[in-house]
Design goal:
By secondary structure, the chain is of the alpha+beta class. It contains 16 helices and 22 strands.
C-alpha cells in the first residue's frame, strides 16, 4: 500500500511557493558534469603522474656536504599535494588554490624546463591541465543548476526561518582542526629538537673519515651500515643504504661512545610523519569548517527562493536527507541529497490536532510491510526548501517529522548539496538491510519476455577484471611465502590460498543457468542444481549473489564484479541486474523457460585446474630459489 506523504500545514507554506515538479527536476538532474569530469579520473591521473615522477626522477644522495635532514619545504609541498587531491574530490574551488601552489613548487624545482626532456614531468603537467579543465566544467555546471533552480522557484522569496538564522556551522570542524594542528605543531617542535640536539653534540665531536666495510640487515629488517674508522668498526642504522656502497668513504662524528653519520645524522621520521598527518587532516577540517561557515552566512543574508518538495530521511547507516519532486508521492526518483540537523521545533499557529486520515493510512502501510518481513522505511514528508539548490550549495527546509506531530521543524544542511545521479553518487535512499533499494518485480518483469530455451547469465568484463587482478596477487603471494624457504609463514598459504583460488575462479567463470525446473549455479568448484520449489530468495550484495534455499544453506557466488566502481562509472552492476532477473523468474513462474538446459550449457568450474596451476607455480618457485 502506498503511504501518503506527511502533510505540511498550509500556514507554513508561504503564498506563491512553486512546486518543484518532475519535468523541472529532470532538467536540473540533466545539468550534471560529464563523466570525463568525474573527480575520480582527475585523482587517478594526478596520482599516477606523481608516482611516475617520483619513481623515475632520482633523488639527491645523502652526502657529508648535503646531509639528509628534515626537508621542511618538501614536507610542506607534500601537505599541499595531499590536500589538493582531497579538494579535487570535495572542494573544487579550493582545489584551484592547491593546484596553483603545486605548480608553483613544480616550477621552482625546474619541472617546467624538465617537461621538455622528462616524460614524467610532461605527464604531470597534462594531468594538472586535465584536472583544471574538470574543475572549471564542474563549477560551470553548478552555475547552470543554480539558474535552473531559480527558474523553477519563480519570483517568490522569503527570509530564512528564525531558528535557521541562529544555526551555526563549523564548530566541530574547527575544534578538530585545532587539535590536529596542535599535534602537528608538537611534531614540528620535536623534530626540531632532534635536529638541534644533534647539532649541539656534533659541534664538540671529532670528525673522522671511515670506510664502509659491510651492509646488512638485522632481525627486524633494518639496514645496518658498518664503518671502519680510526681502527674501530661502528654500526649505524641507515634509511638509504644505496647511498653508501661497500668500500666507499663516509664521514662520521664521534663523541665518546656516541657516533653518527654526517650524511645521515638523525632520524626524525616519526615526528615528520606526525607533522604530515596532523597538517593534512587539520587543514582539511579547517577548510571544511570555513567553507561551511561561509555558505551558511551567505544563506542568512537576505530573502531566499522557495521550492515545494518532498523529503525523506535515510535509514540505518544512511543518515542523509533525500529530496524528491513535489509530484513524486511514492519517492521513486530522488533529485538531490545532503546531511542535515534540526535547528528547533516550533508550534502550529492554530494548535489543532492532526488529521487522523493520513496517520491511519501510514499505520496500514506499516502493518503490510511488517507482515512481508520488512521494516517500514521513513515516510516521505511535505517540505518547503529555502535556498537555491545546486552542487555545493547550502539549504534549509521546514517540514513535520510525523503525521501525528502538530509541530513543524526546521532543518539546516550540514554538508553541501549533491545531485542524486548514477555515476556521481549512489542512486537513492537505502532500505533497511540493503545497500540499494530493489526495483519492483513488476518493473523488472516488464522488461523480460518468456523464452523457450534456458536463460544464461555469466561473468562479464568487470568480474573478469577482478579475477585477472587477483591472479597476480595469488602468484605473488605464493612467491613471497616460499621465497625464504621453509618457515612458519607457509601457514599463511594454507589460510589465504584457498580463498584466493576460490575468488579468482569465481570471478573469472561464474555462471547461472535458468531452465524449466530450476537453476544451475556454477561456482569455483562445482555446479549446483537448485530447484525452483526450494528457492526462498535471491539477493545481491556488493560482494556477490546469494540464492537462499528452504532446507539447506544458501548458494553463494562471490566475487561477481566490483559493484562500487560500476556505480561510480554510471552503470548498473551486472550482478545486481542478474539477481533482479532471477528473482523475477522466481516470483513470476510464467516467465520461466519452457525447456530443460541441455548438457554442457551449465559451464565448467575452474577451481581444480587453478589449484593444479598454483601447485606447478609453487614448485617452479622452489626450483628457481
Amino acid at each position: 500500500m502506498t503511504r501518503r506523504p506527511v502533510p505540511l500545514p498550509a500556514e507554513h507554506i508561504p503564498p506563491g511557493t512553486a512546486d518543484w515538479r518532475t519535468p523541472d527536476a529532470r532538467r536540473w538532474l540533466a545539468a550534471v558534469p560529464a563523466r570525463w569530469a568525474h573527480p575520480l579520473w582527475a585523482l587517478l591521473a594526478l596520482a599516477a603522474s606523481l608516482v611516475w615522477d617520483v619513481m623515475t626522477v632520482p633523488s639527491a644522495p645523502c652526502t657529508s656536504a648535503d646531509p639528509c635532514g628534515t626537508d621542511w619545504p618538501g614536507l610542506g609541498m607534500t601537505v599541499v599535494l595531499v590536500l589538493t587531491l582531497y579538494w579535487v574530490w570535495r572542494q573544487p574551488r579550493l582545489a584551484f588554490a592547491g593546484l596553483a601552489a603545486t605548480l608553483v613548487g613544480f616550477a621552482v624545482e625546474g619541472g617546467f624546463a624538465a617537461a621538455f626532456s622528462e616524460p614524467s614531468a610532461l605527464a604531470f603537467l597534462l594531468a594538472a591541465a586535465f584536472t583544471a579543465a574538470g574543475l572549471v566544467h564542474r563549477l560551470a555546471v553548478a552555475g547552470r543548476q543554480r539558474s535552473l533552480a531559480l527558474e523553477a522557484a519563480g519570483p517568490v522569496t522569503q527570509p530564512l526561518p528564525a531558528a535557521a538564522r541562529t544555526f551555526r556551522r563549523g564548530r566541530f570542524s574547527f575544534g578538530l582542526a585545532a587539535l590536529l594542528l596542535a599535534a602537528a605543531g608538537v611534531g614540528c617542535w620535536q623534530a626540531q629538537q632532534v635536529a638541534d640536539a644533534y647539532e649541539q653534540r656534533a659541534a664538540g665531536a671529532t670528525v673522522l673519515s671511515g670506510r664502509v666495510t659491510a651492509l646488512e640487515q638485522d632481525d627486524d629488517g633494518i639496514d645496518i651500515l658498518k664503518v671502519e674508522a680510526d681502527g674501530r668498526t661502528r654500526r649505524f642504522e641507515t634509511a638509504f643504504p644505496e647511498d653508501f656502497p661497500v668500500d666507499s668513504r663516509v664521514d662520521i662524528v664521534v663523541d665518546g661512545d656516541w657516533a653518527a653519520l654526517v650524511a645521515e645524522p638523525y632520524d626524525a621520521f616519526g615526528w615528520e610523519l606526525l607533522v604530515l598527518g596532523g597538517s593534512v587532516a587539520g587543514l582539511a577540517f579547517l577548510a571544511n569548517g570555513m567553507d561551511g561557515r561561509t555558505r551558511s552566512q551567505r544563506l542568512r543574508r537576505g530573502p531566499l527562493p522557495l521550492l515545494h518538495v518532498l523529503v525523506r530521511e535515510g535509514q540505518d547507516d544512511d543518515v542523509r536527507t533525500w529530496v524528491f519532486a513535489a509530484d513524486d508521492p511514492e519517492g521513486l526518483r530522488p533529485i538531490l541529497y545532503f546531511h542535515s540537523l534540526h535547528a528547533f521545533k516550533g508550534r502550529d499557529g492554530d494548535g489543532r490536532d492532526a488529521d487522523d486520515g493520513p496517520a491511519a493510512v501510514v499505520e496500514l502501510g506499516k502493518v503490510a510491510e511488517i507482515l512481508r518481513g520488512e521494516d517500514p522505511p521513513p515516510p516521505l514528508r511535505e517540505a518547503v526548501l529555502y535556498g537555491v539548490p545546486y552542487a555545493g550549495a547550502e539549504v534549509a527546509f521546514v517540514s513535520r517529522d510525523d503525521a501525528d506531530d502538530p509541530e513543524v521543524s526546521v532543518e539546516c544542511s550540514v554538508t553541501a548539496v549533491k545531485p542524486a545521479v548514477p555515476g556521481w553518487v549512489e542512486r537513492g535512499p537505502r532500505r533497511r538491510g540493503r545497500k540499494n533499494p530493489r526495483r519492483p518485480v513488476d518493473e523488472i518483469a516488464a522488461g523480460m519476455t518468456p523464452t523457450t530455451g534456458p536463460r544464461v547469465w555469466a561473468a562479464h568484463g568487470f568480474s573478469r577484471a577482478v579475477g585477472l587482478c587477483l591472479l597476480p596477487v595469488q602468484g605473488g603471494g605464493i612467491w613471497a611465502m616460499l621465497d625464504e624457504g621453509p618457515s612458519w609463514t607457509w601457514l599463511w598459504l594454507a589460510v589465504g590460498l584457498p580463498w584466493l583460488v576460490t575468488a579468482v575462479a569465481t570471478a573469472l567463470t561464474w555462471r547461472i543457468t535458468a531452465d524449466r525446473d530450476g537453476l544451475w549455479v556454477t561456482g569455483a568448484w562445482r555446479v549446483r542444481r537448485v530447484p525452483w520449489n526450494v528457492i526462498t530468495s535471491v539477493r545481491h550484495s556488493d560482494d556477490g549473489i546469494r540464492v537462499g534455499r528452504a532446507e539447506d544453506s544458501s548458494v553463494e557466488l562471490s566475487p561477481t564484479g566490483w559493484a562500487w566502481l560500476e556505480r561510480r562509472l554510471g552503470r548498473a552492476p551486472h550482478a545486481e541486474r542478474v539477481a533482479e532477473e532471477v528473482r523475477a523468474l522466481l516470483l513470476r513462474p510464467e516467465l520461466r523457460p519452457l525447456q530443460e538446459a541441455p548438457a554442457g550449457r551449465q559451464g565448467v568450474p575452474v577451481g581444480p585446474p587453478l589449484v593444479a596451476l598454483s601447485v606447478l607455480w609453487g614448485a617452479a618457485v622452489l626450483l628457481l630459489l
